[in-house]
Amino acid sequence: MKKIAATIVLALFATLLLCQGSLADEIKAVAVITKIELAADGASAVVALKENKTDAVIEVLVTDDLTLDKFKDHRIVVGDEIRLKYQVEDGKNISKYFRKTAGC
Fold first, then answer.
1. Beta-bridge mates of residue 99
2. Sign (positive or negative) of CA dihedral 101, 33, 97, 38
3. Residue 61 neighbours by CB under 8 Å, 6+ apart
4. CA angle centred on 60, ends 59 and 65, rounded to 5°
5. For residues 96 and 87, is the Cβ–Cβ distance under 8 A?
6. Residue 60 and residue 44: Cα distance in Å, rounded?
7. If pLDDT is split at 50, 70 and 90, which confidence band does 22 have?
8. Which of the two residues, 100 and 19, has the higher pLDDT score?
9. 96 pLDDT exceeds 80?
10. C-alpha–C-alpha distance, residues 72 and 103, integer Å
């Protein structure tokens, strides 16, 4: 009985450690778009944003097709307020979630 309880506690502890590692790398922000640069092939875009809380300017690489289509259709434009999540990978801020705060 003790072995089963110890195994369960160990499994819960390992799960907790894995979850903390993946959540710690993700950064959330609410920011206003100041510049959108679509790549020539349309497969990516670099977006400059001014974060609302700190006024810091951050650049995020966007590669998901849904958001890129919104840039091309001008549904997301300079001046829109965005709620985003991103991760730093190889020194680049990679977008994981990119939505207008007003919905879109």
1. 83
2. positive
3. 44, 45, 46, 92, 93, 94, 95
4. 145
5. yes
6. 10
7. low
8. 100
9. yes
10. 17
pLDDT averaged over every residue in the chain:
87
- Report whether 54 contacts 10 (CB < 8 A): no
SS3 92: strand
pTM of the model: 0.72
Q: CA–CA separation, 37 vs 52, rounded Å?
A: 21
Q: Which residues lie across from 100 on neighbouring strands? A: 82
Helix (H/G/I), strand (E/B), else coil: 97: strand
CA distance 19 to 48: 29
Q: Rounded to 5, what percent of the chain is helix, strand, coil? A: 30, 40, 30
pLDDT band (50, 70, 90) for residue 21? low
For tokens 């990516």, the residue is: 44
